[in-house]
Amino acid sequence: MTDNNALTHKRLLVVDDNPANVELLLDLLDDHGFENVTSTSDSTRVVSLCEADCPDLILLDIRMPGLDGHGVMSALTERFGYQAPPVIVLTAQHDHETRHTALSLGVRDFLTKPFRHDEVLQRINNVLSVQHRFEVRDQQAEALEHLVAQRTQALERQSRTNPTTGLPNRQGLTLTLEKLSQLGESTGILFIVLDGLDDIMRLHGYGTIEALLNRLGQQLSATLPPSHVVGPWGGTEWLVICPDPVNTATLVELANGLCRLVHQDHPVGDLLLPIRARVGICQASRFDPERLVHQAALALPDGYAPMVQYYSEGLEQQQRRRLKLQQALRGAGDRGELELAFQPKVDLVSGRAVGAEALLRWHHPDFGTVSPADFIPLAEASGDILTIGDWVIDAALECLKAWQQDAWIDENFHLAINVAARQLSRQDFAERLLERLHRHDLPGTSLGLEVTESGLMADVDLAREQLTILAGAGTRIAIDDFGTGYSSLAYLKTLPVSTLKIDRAFVSPLPDSEEDRNLAATVIAMAHSFCCDVVAEGIEQASQAALLRELGCETAQGYYYSRPLPAEAFADWYRQQQATMAQF
Q1: What global pTM score does this model have?
Q2: Catalytic residue among 537, 540, 550, 568
Q3: Average confidence score pLDDT of the chain
Q4: Tell me, what's the pLDDT at 546?
Q5: 23 catalytic, yes or no?
Q6: 230 in the Ramachandran plot: left (φ > 0), alpha (ψ -120 to 50) or beta?
Q7: Residues 6 or more apart from 447 whose CB is under 8 A from it?
Q8: pLDDT value of residue 507
Q9: Residues facing 494 on adjacent strands
């Protein structure tokens, strides 16, 4: 039910050319509490009166000189449309045509002259009550629409905001870039990668990471100019948007400043947490946001020298070549593009060849011969090193078996192959390798594995388990490039290592550097203290071989003896070397 008090406050307009009728209605309405009633005898003023203060109800005479009631209703509909005020027609006519025309124009009800007071009041109250309910409904709908709009805006803000830092997330950053791109403004991008977060998460948990990132976000925001926008782009990536940067040097200076800010111990609770940053930079105007971010990501340095790098087309071409190489590498073994080359290992005392290292070579029909320094890291990153490693093992064992059957290698000859960290991380690596040796009817002593220090440290417990099984079968385990990786002696106590290989970086300066000679002597003595023999690689001069022999190094390899050779060429070299040695 509608409160009658609410109805008496409604605005009413009485339109009748007969002053007596107007006076009668005004008195009646006033007697029943209606407080806001106006009137006019000029039907042409109705529209303008409604424009000035639109009434809640019009009591309209149908028969008036000039503009009659039908004309007034048409004018109201034309001016206000569906928002035109409701109308009750005042008429002394009861004919069907008059009523039908009025109804077709939207009239709500009729009051028949002469008026009956109770009927007049009831009909007015009925129309006002219905109109009031419509108004309340509209107000409620408008309030609901406003709440929905507010909630929608809040959800949109939430969808563009990182919950941990309160800074724009990837969607928010992308929207900012899209706006700047549409404006055609020159925009710089700093693509920042934070290193060290994974270790912090494993040691201290996600709560610590969130607190660290929140603190870092506040620091970055406080450091950057107000026009710049910063926020997390991914798990360890952040983006800084620099509208209208002055020049490249300004962006590089800003990036270096942010690196210095990141490269410190960050206090979180009772902890001091170290992290590092690398930054790729790109700048453009009227750009595609996704492309600009991609270019900045392409410019990201691989290491920390330098920590900041600016995008260039040449850099992208290099990256694209890397990607093409990575794609081409998959299935290279099946296509016959892989080949093994063998570099002799020579006993420094006797001068005889005692073994060889199998080195992988890739010959691609379009790229030509690709350096292992280029494709091995790609294979390790993509996981293709597992398939390639299997190919190397099978090819090496087939060669070794064929050489034994041809009886031209010594029974103590052993062949070394390189093993990647990803291979050692397989639980069944040792078991599968022993199965292959058995399949080729080869003893474990005929094979050696060369593993880098970094490869061992990737999962030292699993590496120890796998290598211990192989060492038990007589397989030689060598640490390759010793001294260039972790250089920790702890693992030598627990791993079944039989050989240390001195990297060429220590061998090259030997004849001219007393410091390097002392270092080599220390490494050799240390290896012997762990019951390991020593192999020196990168021998290119007789003086280097002589010095290493004097220092107690057992074995050497390098271009002084032979470059890596294809299988047939290696067999010829070995036979000739053995024949030469037999003459002495």
Answers
A1: 0.63
A2: 537
A3: 88
A4: 93
A5: no
A6: beta
A7: 396, 397, 400, 414, 415, 416, 417, 437, 475, 476
A8: 83
A9: none
